[in-house]
Known about the structure:
This protein is an alpha+beta fold. It has helices spanning 39-50, 84-87, 110-118, 140-144, 163-167, 174-184, 192-199, 214-217, 224-236, 243-251; strands at 4-12, 24-33, 69-72, 75-78, 90-94, 101-103, 106-107.
Amino acid sequence: MADLTVKFKIRRQNPEIPGKDKPYWQEFTLTGVEPTDRVLEMLHRIKWEQDGTLSLRRSCAHGVCGSDAMRINGVNALACKVLIQDVGNEIMVEPILGLPVIKDLIVDMEPFFDHYRSVMPYYVNNDPVPEDGRERLQTQADKDKFDDTTKCILCACCTTSCPSYWANGKYVGPAAIVQAHRFIFDTRDQAAKERLNILAEENGVWRCRTIYNCTPACPREIQVTKAIGEVKLAIQRGKTDGIVKVVHAHQH
């Protein structure tokens, strides 16, 4: 493959340095770039070869940890999954929106995780452990009801693509609703009513305006808007122990 010359325009900010504490743009040029190189690899090159002060968050570099979420040409994505050939040779990179910038492409994720924790994102079952000491079983059909939302890696791509979240950071956001969905529709869990009560509050699921930004933003291809709709329907039909069965009977 022919080597490419790629120009990067990166939105930078360092709150600790006067003159750089406001957002500004800086341009970099890389040569010898392959079409199948990934944006994350090129950001590494910029940091290692041209400007060691460039700051970004990343870990696994394989689309699993979700730590390198950023806006690439105006679209939320994981830098480790985006190929140069898919975004061209002029690339604009920014931090994800709606969260405070710590430095350059690194944002403060604590507000995001506060919303995540608020929906009880854990398994609740107070029944005695099965006599054989093994797991609580369920059918494949029951598992299929929430399987899609188990794929969430908490990258915040969906939440920070949401105009409702940009307008009101108190909104719990798509990712938290996805996490709640994963347990609300798990037949083994016993806290669906509590989660639905939380999401029925002022800054819960009803702040979603079904703009649909969240679904295409998800690097795991979760049907985020569908999951949010299922939670809305569950709340509308009543916060009862049997709501999960009622909702899925309606869907099928």
